[in-house]
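Friendly challenge for the regulars: who can give me the structure tokens for this chain first? No prize, just bragging rights.
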Amino acid sequence: MEEAAEEEEEATLDWRGRPSDPSKHGGMRAASFLLGLQAFEIMGIAAVGNNLITYVINEMHFSLSKSANTVTNFVGTIFILALLGGFLSDSYLGCFWTILIFGFLELSGFILLSVQAHLPQLKPPKCDMMHPGVDEPCIEAKGFKALIFLVALYLVALGSGCVKPNMIAHGADQFNTNSPKQAKRLSSYFNAAYFAFSLGELFALTVLVWVQTHSGMDVGFGVSAAAMAMGLISLVSGTFYYRNKRPRGSIFTPIAQVFVAAIRKRNLDLPSNTQILHGSQDNVPNNKSNGGNLLHTERFRFLDKACIKTQDQAKATESPWRLCTVTQVEQVKTLISVIPIFACTIVFNTILAQLQTFSVQQGSSMDTHLTSSFTIPPASLQSIPYLLLILLVPLYDRLFVPFARRLTGHESGISPLLRIGLGLFLATFSMIAAALMEKKRRDAAVRSGHVLSIFWITPQFLIFGLSEMFTAVGLIEFFYKQSLKGMQAFLTAITYCSYSFGFYFSSVLVSLVNNVTSSGNGGGWLRDNDLNKDRLDLFYWLLAVLSFLNFLNYLFWSKWFSYNPSTISSLVSQNNKEVNCEEGLMMASNPNNMMIKRVGGNDNYHSMP
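First reply, four minutes later:
Bragging rights claimed.
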């Protein structure tokens, strides 16, 4: 392990481009600056996104369904653009410069939003969307006014989308995963990152939303800009302490080479002995730029044809578009294998979209008084789970993880796959609680005119917050720890894509439900701006059913999935190829290509598929 750790240190650079020094660079000290950035960035973006539907309805005069779709499309775009940020970081810019460049773009978007909200010339005339006049109906923002709003909004989306995956990846890069002690600290870092996220969300959904409600959205957007500026200051302050992984060129080229080479050799037969495949295990010297050698696996064997070396290729150096190594092919197999796990979290994020749109409107139709003189902004309801998580995440990391680690031997206490599954299971109960509470609220309002307290809908937020602690952190840890060197930022971006698809699916689902449930005499479940006329409770029940079916689907794919072997080349001597038990890994010659891994710090070993 020490040799592998030294090699990883050589592959990381300090701010001057020199090899990093483990005594000066990296570790939790360096990661803390990234945690500060994450708290401030989410503080700014959450204050905008979580109260955006109120602004779009009251100030831009969009209908309820169009406003909900505007919000979900905005949030969805943020997370789909995370792929761009991950690609640019891993391929060309590196995490630090990607964060810095797009962080300033996000800051400029916040400033433009504040200007647009402040100037009456950039907004339609004021009116009450809930009680529009017959003679003077509310005018929806169009033309130049809508253009300014959308440009500002999507500048924020572009900046935030490219910043988000790199904050997590750059923080995780500060830990040397080949060091057992730092591997445990990496698990703690993921929990700390979610704690910083929760802290930023809590502040945004209480203080900043209160500012937006009582001082105006222009002031609120301005405070979001100030928070983003503080985040960039935190980023720059840690410059001297970072371990920086150098970009490796286009991350898509090696992937494309595997598919092209496999297709070109589609008519060849695979050898019965996989040891003769090009680059199989120890047949070639360690290629540091490729992250070391990976063990061959039997899944997606068609791709193994890219490693077949023909007689013509045996005497000459072959083009990488015609001949690939086993390691290169196994990395592509890993990418394909994680797709079903990723897909199973889309419905989970569709539920999150409802808590940021319809549940906020649900709270607007309830009694928001905490006392006779103090009211709770409906958007602040979303702070409830984060208040809970600020208490739970440290307890989870300091008490549960060490206890579970003794039982399972897993450095994270429980595996990321199990953590994701627990979250998906709990998400179903969030929608069940939402449906029951909406039915109670609607019946009270329609039958007796009674307005329930806003606290009746807190259970759906509490349950989902607990669910998100398991699923969101588990998914990021799962993707980051895959054996794909040089693609950590892009893999982290894939986790954010789940949010994107979830929010886009929410928009499609809302429109589909409206079309299916509409009749000749009236609109669909979510057609009106009045929740007392809509059937939001039935929509929540539909989501509860979808969530449970999605959980069953996840059980199948999580059982199907098996981790790819970890890199082994740095642990196997190239001279004598003997097993090195002292380094924590040993290779066993067996027909199933199993890896034997030491559990914890003792001499107990178990096989890893």
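Residues 180-215 form the longest helix (36 residues). Residues 285 and 574 are 7 Å apart (CA to CA). Your move, everyone else.
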